[in-house]
TrEMBL record:
Residues 57-72 have a biased composition (Basic residues). Keywords: DNA-binding, Nucleus. One of its GO terms (biological process) is protein localization to chromosome, telomeric region. Pfam families: TRF (PF08558). The lineage of its organism: Eukaryota, Metazoa, Chordata, Craniata, Vertebrata. InterPro entries: Telomere_rpt-bd_fac_dimer_dom, Telomere_rpt-bd_fac_dimer_sf, TERF2. Residues 1-15 have a biased composition (Low complexity). This is TERF2 isoform 11. Residues 1-86 are annotated as: Disordered.
Amino acid sequence: MAAGAGTAGPASGPGVVRDPAASQPRKRPGREGGEGARRSDAMAGGGGSSDGSGRAAGRRASRSSGRARRGRHEPGLGGPAERGAGEARLEEAVNRWVLKFYFHEALRAFRGSRYGDFRQIRDIMQALLVRPLGKEHTVSRLLRVMQCLSRIEEGENLDCSFDMEAELTPLESAINVLEMIKTEFTLTEAVVESSRKLVKEAAVIICIKNKEFEKASKILKKHMSKDPTTQKLRNDLLNIIREKNLAHPVIQNFSYETFQQKMLRFLESHLDDAEPYLLTVRLGPSPITMVCP
């Protein structure tokens, strides 16, 4: 979700929660229009008026009303500083509740192959990251998982990039995020190995299916040349690239949907499966006492 692969800091640090633009897929320079451009616009967090004077007027009105509120003292509510601190803590708690709720919904959408819904929810979460969350370590894992899933969801779109400086494909970027997950989730090599291989294989095959044979060759040499366990697959892919043979069974039998769902199951297996707080709140005739988790 947040900092781009290869450039991010620890998941609990400012790079994850405070840099929303870094996870936005962007259209590669030199390409015109296409699906990449449309998805890039969605991630840009558009909407609302583009009139700068309108926004300025709104900010002036907001500051004016804020000054009026700060100047008022209501009995029994404590001083302005106390009320302000309480409101800040409440907003942080509510923001965490909402973020975790939407993360739960994003996983549900991905699991149900509703990828359009997943992208919309991802953008909502992205917008929420500019607000205070407090206790950032409690949401760092879900943000890393969203980073990985966002790249996997965009993986077939080679016009999209999460790492403009490195010119990586989305799945190459996903490989890097997976390494961050391994470190930050304290996973062993044995646990991550099979999923990493899946992403590497998919990264090469998607380039082949898009007839980007030179790019496929570069990814293959970079990520699969030193692994003896993938030697046969590597040789098959090298021959496919050399012959530009899109009819080969390795290409024809590859299912991106199956790959996506395997990666989701892997990531979910390392997450807390407790329901988000907002799903546990039951509305009824009795007043609800909310305790900030």
